[in-house]
Structures are given as C-alpha cells and as structure tokens.
Write a structure and sequence with these properties.
By secondary structure, this protein is an alpha/beta fold. The protein has ten helices and 15 strands.
Length: 353
C-alpha cells in the first residue's frame, strides 16, 4: 500500500476502496458529501463493509432505527461480525449497534483445528499455557495468561476461526509473566490493523523499555487521540506521538472517533439490548469498571448469552466483557476438552485481521 502522503487530496477511503475493487472509478467511490437520512447512511455503511478487504465472503445488511444500527446477514467468522459493528460505529449518525449477524456454519473439528493453528502461529502471548476446546460451534479458552490484555488478545486471535459463533474466555490472569517490547509492538500493530478508523494509514510503533514511539500520519485529531488511548496496553509506561502528524487530506468522509464515558457506554448498551428482539425480554444488568463490562442476570439460552456479550463488545469504550449471565437451559459438554499445547510457535509477522 502507498504511504498516505502520496494520496494527496484524494480521500484515503476512496483510494482504499478503489484498490480493493480494482476497477471502481473515483466518481463512483468518492461521496461528494456526507450521507444524510437513514437510507443514505445505511447504504453508505453497507458499501463500506462490502468494500472492506477484511470482510471477504460476508453479506451484511445495515438497518438504522433511532440512531441504532441493526446488523443482519452472514459472515465467515466472529471477527468479521465484530468488524462490521466497528465499521458501523464510525458513522456520526450511529450511537450504538445491535449485532444480529450470523456466522456461516463449519464442522466443530474444523473450527477447533483452525483456532489451534491461529494460536500456534503467533508469539504475542504464551500460548503454551492455553488450552482450547469446543462446545458445538463455540470455542472455550482455558488456562493462564499474564495480563487481562493477553486474555483479550487470545480471544481476538481465535475469533478469526471460521465458523466459531462465540468464544468463552475462561482464562485466569496470574500476572506471572513480564511482557517484552516485541510482544507489545505486535499487539499495537495488531490493534491498528484491526481498527477501521486506521484503514489506509501507515502508522508504525516502536517500543523500547515500555515506551511507545509512533511515526506516521493520521487524518484527524480524533484519530490521533484514539491512537494514544489505544496505546496504553499492559507493559506500556509512556507514549510518544511526536512523530505522528495530522494531515487533513487523509481524513475519511462521514466517519468519526467515539470516546464514550462509562455511563454513556452503559446507556448505549441498554439501548441496544432494548432494540434487540432476542434480548429485550431478558433480565440483563451491566456495570462498567476500567473499560470492562460485567453482564449479570439471567437468560434462557446460551445463544442469548452469546448475543448479549457480542452486543456489549460492540459498544465504544468497552475493552473487554465479563459475562456472568446465568443460563436457564441444560448444561452442555465440550466436544473436545483435550488441552492444546502449541509446539514450536512462530513469530506473528503479519499481525491483524
């Protein structure tokens, strides 16, 4: 991909879309003004999702009710479902998202094999202490990690497994490991590659003794502030963004950063649950502390519990979810509880989705 400075006055959204489609002309790909009204916003977001190279194989429909984006359709992985929600949330006209996207089915054995391969192919976290099993199409993570960040990152990595409809994260944090600068670097690059607001940008982190130095260009002050916020992962003591400049020529149309307060995040989650036909009759409560949403209450099925967690993960400001919902249905047994010990893990040379 070209360095953003070479895009000049072309929007990076248009340049990225044109690169993805190959034959799209700028007159078609570049909106002349921000979309207005429910129909235009819905169509714009669907086009954004369709053009996203990370959404290959997906068919997502966006509906908007009372500034709540309701996503339906089918994707290949949980990671794609969450990315579609992240794309929708970049719109100034969207306050929150109800994620009703379905995951295209795969055999449980294929899901498990792929998840284990994803963990084994990276060295960002100590995967030798993590075991993976399945309950139908749901992945179960057990074992130990050194920090909350590593637990969430493990979940993010296996969520890319095609066919996995949920990830139940049972990993315990023992704070026994010290994160290396290399691990932090790859996590930050992974985060940037995964964030729709940084699409098309060439921003690179360097980490030394827990101090992060960023270099490159962003399109807006909101993107700059978002980069700083998302840099404070476990092991980071200081962030130096003096090497990052704001270039208005790189600003994308009709997108913005959202930085909700804890109370705003809870309000957004409540609104999403009340608009979700799967959940609005259930007794679900939520509290937020240090970016972690804790869900309590009861639901009738595992699918409802998974839906509530997925919706919570789509809320701006949420860094992780502690799902403590009780389920009225019968207990299920893992189809393959055997422990996974990654042998000869390889360095993650292409972080991100």
């Amino acid at each position: 991909m070209k360095h953003p400075s070479s895009f000049s006055n072309l929007s990076r959204w248009a340049a990225f879309s044109a690169a993805a489609l190959g034959t799209v002309t700028l007159s078609v790909a570049t909106p002349q003004m921000d979309p207005e009204g429910v129909t235009e916003v819905s169509e714009f977001l669907q086009m954004e999702i369709y053009h996203d190279t990370m959404m290959e194989g997906s068919e997502v429909t966006v509906g908007i009710e009372e500034r709540i984006a309701i996503l339906t359709g089918t994707v290949t992985s949980l990671a794609q479902a969450e990315r579609a929600a992240a794309k929708a949330l970049t719109s100034p006209d969207v306050l929150t998202v109800v994620n009703q996207i379905k995951i295209a089915p795969q055999e449980g054995s294929e899901i498990l094999t792929h998840a284990r391969s994803l963990l084994a192919s990276q060295e960002v976290i100590d995967n030798s202490r993590i075991s993976v099993s399945t309950i139908g199409s749901r992945l179960i993570l057990e074992g130990n990690v050194g920090s909350l960040d590593e637990g969430e990152l493990a979940r993010e990595i296996v969520s890319e497994a095609p066919g996995a409809t949920a990830v139940e994260n049972r990993l315990a944090v023992d704070f026994q490991s010290i994160r290396s600068d290399n691990q932090i670097t790859y996590q930050l690059q992974y985060t940037v590659n995964d964030d729709p607001l940084f699409t098309g940008l060439d921003i690179v982190p360097e980490v030394k003794d827990g101090i992060v130095a960023w270099n490159g260009e962003v399109g807006s002050r909101g993107e700059f502030d978002r980069l700083i916020r998302r840099s404070y992962v476990t092991g980071v003591f200081e962030v130096d963004a003096s090497g990052v400049s704001v270039n208005g020529d790189l600003a994308m149309e009709a997108v913005e950063d959202k930085n909700y307060s804890p109370s705003q995040s809870i309000e957004a989650l409540t609104a999403a649950i009340n608009h979700d036909s799967r959940l609005k009759e259930e007794k679900i409560s939520a509290e937020m502390d240090a970016g972690i949403i804790t869900l309590t209450g009861s639901v009738e099925t595992t699918a409802q519990s998974d839906a509530a967690e997925l919706t919570a993960r789509c809320i701006p400001g949420v860094l992780g979810v502690s799902n403590q919902l009780s389920i009225a249905g019968a207990d299920e047994v893992a189809s393959d509880p055997k422990e996974f010990n990654a042998a000869s893990p390889r360095l993650l040379t292409q972080p991100g989705r």
